[in-house]
Amino acid sequence: MHRSARDPITEFEELRRLLLSRERAQLRELTDRVSDKERRSQDVAGVLPEAIKMSRERGEELTHALQPAVEGSIKDSIDQRPQVFVDALHPIIGPIVRRSIAESLRRLLQSLNQTLEHTFSWRGLKWRFEALRTGKTFAEVVMLRSLVYRVEQLFLIHRETSLALLHVAADSAVSKDSDMVAGMLSAIQDFARDSFEAGEDSALEEFRVGELQVWIAPGRAAYLAAVIRGNPSRELRSTLEDAIESIHILKGSALTFFQGDTAVFETLRPELESCLQAQYNTEKRGRPTRAWLMLLAIAAVAIFGLILAAQSKSKWKNFLGRLKSQPGIVVTDAQHRWFSSSQVSGLRDASSADPATLSREANLDPSRIRFHWKEFLALDPASVRRRFEQRFSVPTETRIALNDGVLALSGSVPYAWLEQVQREATLIPGVTSIVERDAKIIYDPDLARKRFETRFTLPDSVNAVAVDGALTLSGEASHRWLTRVRAEGAKVPGITSIDDRAVIDLDQRAFEQSRSIIESAFVYFLTNKDDIATEGFAALSRLPDEIRRCENAAKQLGMALTLEIHGYADAVGSEAKNADLRQRRANKVRDFLVSCGFPAAQFKPVGIEQPFKPAASDKAAAEQSDRRVAFTVVTQSSTTSP
Amino acid sequence: MIQKKICMIGASGVGKTSLIAKFVHSMFSDKYLTTVGVKIDKKTVSVDGSEVMLMIWDLEGDDDYQRLQTSYLRGTSGYLLVADGTRQITLDQAIEIQGRVVAAIGPLPFLLALNKADLAPQWEIDEARTDSLSARGWRSFKTSAKEGAGVEEAFIELGRMMTQSK
């Protein structure tokens, strides 16, 4: 069989295929894997967890490399979908906050309780005295006397590097540079271990310096060092051991891979702070009773204060209500203040009620209220009424009503008061007129009499007595005065009738007297002649004066006077002669009187036929003969007033 | 803030304690050195913009370096090896001590401080000696506790070495 010549290149390729076919397939697959992105991702995903684990074991490099990316993605996530983080953190934030608050409250109560105990108790006073005596501060004495123990400082120290990872201290503890103290604590431990050739695992567990003890709670990668004042109980050790154990659980890897960054341990602070315990020597342990009592007392005081405040507020409201409802007061601004004077401003009519009195009525101290009033005239009926009442003290039986400026009086109204009101009431702003229609006016008899006396100028000779409006007069008075009184007396307010029967009319009496004298005067004549007998002259000579007196009196009485001259003659002789004789005798007397200046018309001389009839008592006259002239006074109302 | 523990190591009398006295925050007296064998001070340095707090363990200088208390070295991130430039022997001791330190806690960043640089006339350590150390990767600073020269720089440099090596 002949083998055909073949191309050497093809042969080489053939050879290569035979020899390397398996490797070539593998190479192809590898190339595919490297160039195919999806497959490469699958490969990386397979080894990534293991790679991260290994990287962590080698150190913090991966952590630092990932830090910016992780921080960035967390920030983005919070910005865009905060709810996811809220949901995730919600279950742990609540307990953390609660624990923190409970811890703060516990410490506050404890400290408050101690303060109170030390402040108010007998022992507290004793300590104060001791502090004074020894020159120590009170706090030092209290510490010395009452403290059982107190954890003052806690160091969380990295075992390998001796660096302080975290340091917490009680508020009042003196703490020096924690980093250096932590270092020295480690050094002392090393020193002790080395000096006494104790094993690597053994540790200095506690040591005492004066009042202080240092307790070490060891852990695998870190340990806790507690600086304690006083004598701690054994329970404290288990507390510390629990704490370091939980710290290792929480921060195990951070402790293992610690590279000097202490910030990550900051979250352990509450854990450590809860170990800052203290125990004090008190009679009653456990519950801070005094603190509760004090809180209760404070609450009681606060409640009492609130009640007082509410009462005060209500008093103030009541007062303001009263003030605002007062006529003549307009409140424009009112401020109630607790610690300074309260203020009230507004307008006030002078006649209105006194605000200070109102405040007293509302149980408020007026000296704690400052009033700022501007005066004004209130025209509301109540203010006008009050103003009226202040000006005129209204008698108890009198009732007043005010309507549109009209003051209506009713009931019993004393006349004198009414008179003043009528005179002056309209001077009061708001009163325009007075109506007393419905009033029963009461007159004081005495005042009525006085009014009468003033009006009529009571003469001294007249006495006036008033009883129930009836005025009884007695004494003497001129006719003119009496006439006036009779005409106008009852017009005097308070006088209803006048009885003047007991008053002698002086003019009337004078007239009567004169008339009586005139009419009892006789002028005698000689027998059978018209010549006046001697005794007749005496009578005649007195007549003119008497006539004038009578005339004057009559004039006062408002009368004109005429005198009838009656001539008489005796029966001797003839009647005709006698008639002539009678007339002549009368004429003779008239002529005489005319000659005395009287007008002739005033006399009426007549002869009287009948014999003269003397009055029975007049014996002398009877003895005389009828040869006489007698007079009769005749009056008639004067045309001219007296 | 990052914290780092460092140690000051060297024979007695090389001026370790006075080297840092001016530069650190101190609260313990020097008595600690002779009693406990260590004194701890604190110094904050700024390394490339970030603050690093150095907890400085000043170990008692002991000529009998067999007794070097290696337990104090545990957890340290680096150390300052101090020698007295005016006494050749202290450099030899420093080299011996460094060997012991490496044996005890392994290789760590460190700096050699040649102290008492202010006493130039008495200077015993020649350039050739320091060059040969440089060739072994040792970095050295001339420092003066009296004048304060080089100390700050040494701490900063050590801080930088420690933060980069982590």
In short:
With 642 residues, chain A is α/β, with parallel strands linked by helices. Chain A has 19 helices and 20 strands.
**Can you tell me the CATH topology of chain B?**
Rossmann fold
- Which architecture name of the largest domain in chain A does CATH use? 2-Layer Sandwich
Count of individual domains of chain B: 1
The number of domains of chain A: 5
Q: How helix-rich are the residues of chain B, as a percent range?
A: 25-40%
CATH overall fold name of the largest domain in chain A: Beta-Lactamase
End-to-end distance of chain B: 15 Å
Shape of chain A: rod-shaped
Largest sheet of chain B: 6 strands, mixed
Low-confidence stretches of chain B: none
Indicate the radius of gyration of chain B in whole angstroms. 15 Å
Strand order of the largest sheet of chain B: 2-3-1-4-5-6
User: Which radius of gyration of chain A do the C-alpha atoms yield?
Assistant: 72 Å
Structure classification of chain A? alpha/beta
Biggest β-sheet strands, sense, barrel of chain A? 6 strands, antiparallel
Number of distinct helices of chain B: 5
Q: What portion of residues of chain A belong to β-strands? A: 15-25%
Question: Helix tally of chain A?
Answer: 19
Q: Could you give me the name of the CATH homologous superfamily of chain B?
A: P-loop containing nucleotide triphosphate hydrolases
Largest interface: A-B, 26 and 27 residues
CATH architectural grouping of chain B: 3-Layer(aba) Sandwich
